[in-house]
Amino acid sequence: MTSPSIILGAPGWWPWAASLAGLALALIVWSYSRAGAGAGVRTACAILKALAFATLALILLEPLLSGLRPRRGANAFAVMADVSESLLIRDDGSEQTRGDWIRDRLRREAPWRARLGQDFDARGYTFDTHLRAVDDFDDLAFDGPGSAIGAALASLSKRFRGLPLAGALLFTDGCRTDVGDVDWSSLPPIYPVIPPAPGVARDVGVRDVSISQTNFESAPVVLRAEVSAVGYAGRPIVAVVVDEAGVEVQRQQAKAEADAKPLSFRFQFRPARRGVGFYQVRAFPADEEPKPEAAGASPASTEQTLANNGRLVVVDQGGGEYRVLYVGGRPNWEFKFLRRALRDDEQIKLVGLLRIARKQPKFDFQAARDRTNKFFQGFDNPDAETAEAADQPVLVRLDTLDEAELRDGFPKTAEELYRFHAIVVDDLEAGFFTPDQLALLRNFVAVRGGGLLMLGGPDSFADGGYDRTAVGELLPVYLGGRAEPADSGGLRLVLTREGWLQPWVRTRATEDEEHKRLAAMPPFRTLSRVGRIKPGAVVLAEVADPDGAVAPALAAQNFGKGRVAALLIGDLWRWGMRKQDSEESDLERSWRQTARWLVADVPRRAEVAARPKPDAPAPAVELTARVRDPEYRPLDDAKVAFKVALPGGESLTLDAEPDPREAGAYAATYVPKRPGAYRVAATAVAVDGSTVGEAEAGWAAQPAADEFARLAPDRAFLAELAAKTGGEVIDGSRLDAFVAGLPARGAPISEPWTAPLWDHPLAFLIAIACLTAEWGLRRLNGLA
Q: How far is the C-alpha of 655 from the C-alpha of 643, rounded, in Å?
């Protein structure tokens, strides 16, 4: 109902009413101007009498009160009740659960429900992960596995699309478990009703777990856990990380402070196996640690619930083998230390292509009869088929897949080069490559997404003629305008601020140890000088000469889909010549971390990801596979199947459909039926029947942990929901008053209404009251 307005039923009487009012006013003024009382008394009496005659004159116009109100029964109004498990919480000092409070408000005989049914077509719904229509709310169980508030409201909006829905009462604590933003624009006015929760008595819960994987040798996985500890101020809280077999990986302890301040735990560890693995973070009071069944009974828990004491997290250490191609202009110490560092790495395979003799001039008239490279001179009867020609360099291949790989030198086609995930170019001039090979290297980084590292030396960077080449575009430094080499006895390596923030640049676990490591490093004597750093690139390390002048030593940048680094030091091998306290040198660890950084995000021909589907009505998971051809372009005609391993050992297979949103992407949706760890293996097959690739991913379904991640009602979310939809948060104790005033808030289908004011008793009472008051004033002041 809109704000009522006053209209005149007999506007034709306006001249007569005005004349009557004017005549009365003139007589009043004339009569009181001759009275003998004071000016204040005469004015008050005149006003009272004039107001009485004005009211009687207005009645002649037949004033009517008019407006719009919802047509009874024409508009729907939804009543929604959250039946998730979080409503079973009994707050501190409360004798009933939140669910009991909601059930009492929704009982059939509640007066507000009868009044709501008089003005609207009231519809009842319950929701957890789905929205369901109900006839009454007497049998609410509060056993739902989640509280998908956003999905429930979206489903309600979809059900009433094109129908008159005046609003919705939402009985919930606001602790939603679905993901994604709520589409406010499609919703009617929402009126949340929140249980009066004073607070949780005691509870320890793992709120959030995040994981990041680094190339830091000692701890490639960093797991952060946020733990709430309500009611345990001053008491120690323990957080434990366990693997899939229940074996403890790490343990930490911290003292709880204020209830509103969660504890933060940070774990660093190295997974025992590569591929997809699952770890669980558990938190509990130190004196209430649950014991294994074999160890006897666990101490009684004082917590509100134990459903939020653990949370699963997925760790993907990658699968398969990464291949790094080292291309060197001469055998040197750098390749020796790099090969030694990667020798025992299970995930990285180093392939070497070393030039041991340069090519000779093509036309040499003094040796016209002997067309073999001079490197073979002195050998008896060199094999003409294996001896390189004079105009070809002599190359040595190491650790190739087969005899055919790299047989003709550096790859000349994308299919050959894209078999590798990273390229290391060491002391090799640009003239070694053809223009097509230089362009291929650029595409290797920009299109294929590979990693490229160029090492310093006499034939690298500007000295190697890379300026104004396709590879020169990749490098994070400008090659023109380079400075002259410093005339010094040695160059000391220091890390920049950006370098300290990159785990793959450091080799020690703590800052103090890293400072000691830098101080113990030998001085270097070979540095390729370059120009300025390109925009978007970062300098991770610098070298300083005895005079204090600094120059870049290590720079990196992203280029296209890949990444590029420039290590300008040409004698890094000196670092490995120092005696180490441990069996493994810092140089070997640094090389291994650098190689892992180069291949960390390099795409494969087949990849798979499992992410929550935000627009699904249930906690569904969207499985997406991306498939590429040998040149790493999207492959649109592949056949992809997902094999999902369920908790408990069972499995099922889903056929993927092409995703219209992205070329080369294939998707399927799966709704987990039970809690636990899920693995998915994607297999992509080309049209010719050949296998393009296989990939693995995983996710964890933990509805109880999500449901009880936050025990306090989310009043901020519900207030925002009400404000953006035109509703308001309703106090549960004033439901009767709220429902009584609902017709004044408007509705999609309304009807006009009018009510006469001219014959209302109040109008005559106003006139009589004014005349009575005027008569009383005259009598009190002795006026006739």
A: 9
The residue behind tokens 């001219």 is: 758
Structural domains in the chain (count) = 5
CATH of the domain at 219: 2.60.40.1930
Question: How many Å apart are CA 647 and CA 318, to the nearest integer?
Answer: 21
CA distance 581 to 578: 10
What CATH number should be reported for the domain holding residue 577?
A: 3.40.50.880
Q: What is the pLDDT of residues 345-387, one digit of tens each?
A: 888 999 999 998 876 555 454 554 555 555 555 555 555 555 5
One domain for residues 669 and 732: no
> What confidence tens digit (pLDDT) does each residue in 149-171 have?
988 999 999 999 988 999 999 99
Name residues whose C-beta falls within 8 Å of residue 324's C-beta, 6 or more positions apart in sequence. Answer: 342, 348, 349, 350, 351, 420, 421, 422, 423, 424, 595, 598, 599
**Antiparallel, parallel or unpaired: β 5-8 and 190-193:** unpaired
Same domain? For 424 and 445 the reply is: yes
pLDDT in tens, 573-583: 888 776 555 55
487, 341: one domain: yes
Q: What amino acid occupies position 331?
A: P
Q: 754 falls in which pLDDT band (50, 70, 90)? A: low
Question: 91-107: per-residue pLDDT in tens?
Answer: 777 788 899 999 999 99
Residue 457, Cα to own-chain centre: how many angstroms? 43
If asked whether residues 263 and 234 sit together in one domain, one would say yes
Q: Which residue has the higher pLDDT, 612 or 423?
A: 423
pLDDT confidence of 559, banded at 50, 70, 90?
very high
Residue the block writes with tokens 């009211």? 55
Q: Which range marks the domain in which residue 769 is found?
A: 5-69+753-780
pTM for this model (two decimals): 0.73
Q: Which amino acid is at 543?
A: V
H/E run at residue 193 = strand 190-193
Claim to verify: residue 687 and residue 774 sit in the same structural domain: no
DSSP code string of 202-249? SEEEEEEEEEEE---SS--EEEEEEEEEET-TTSEEEEEEE-TT--EE
459 and 563 both lie in a single domain: yes
User: Side chain identity at 21, as an amino acid letter?
Assistant: A
Residues 93 and 130 in one domain: yes
**CA 314 from chain center: how many Å?**
15
Enclosing H/E stretch for 467: none
CA–CA separation, 126 vs 708, rounded Å?
Answer: 19
Q: With 0-12 CB in 10 A as exposed, 13-18 as middle and 19+ as buried, what is 450?
A: buried
> Does residue 2 surpass a pLDDT of 70?
no
- Return the structure tokens found at 17: 């009413």
